[in-house]
Amino acid sequence: MTTPRLGKVSLPEVIRRALDARTAELRVGMPATIESFDKDTQLASVRPCLADTVTLEDGTEESEALPVISDCPCHFPGGGGFSITFPVQKGDPCWLVFSDRSLDKWLDNGGQVDPVAMQQHHLTDASVFLGVRPKPGAIPDFDPDNFTIGKDGESADWAALATKVKDEIKALRDWCATLHTNFAAHNHKGTIVISALTCATDTLVPPDTDSGPPAVNDVASATVKIKG
User: Which CATH number fits the domain 10-138, given the four candidates 1.20.1250.20, 2.60.40.10, 3.30.565.10, 2.40.50.230?
Assistant: First the structure.
């Protein structure tokens, strides 16, 4: 069976070109950079980083930059009334995800909506996921073994755990209280200053009192570091 031809182009070629043209209009995802960010609405304007390829009338192709996309919702992890936020600045790299349907009514109203507009995976229906980076912008001094949070490039220190800190303060306060009792029992005339964290005494120590304060144990988390 002979394949039908339309002019100089076969029917399969016409179908392929039509599918290619339709696919070219459907967006899925791409890198971008932040142009501006509104802290009140948490919407951003972004500049796509990948150019389009445009076919001219003479059949040649050339690259064409995509326009800035405005009013893109930004993703910040959250749920149950809690959220994690961080500053968003011009030039920050991000990743765009394009919605199956128009986002306009959902952005204005939230909840279940009829998008009305029939557009699918349209350039203007992008959401922003922050933190996706190109290789030149990789996180410096990346720690492969621990959870870190804070400003990139700053030195990291272990986060203190509240229960461990509380235990250390209690041990020191108990020692101070014992020291105070022992001095009082021996009618010692030295000066004692007691606070939540420190004890200062003269150099004399009663016979039934320890020779020094308790050793300070490590209060740091084993897995969490704070940078900056």
Answer: 2.40.50.230
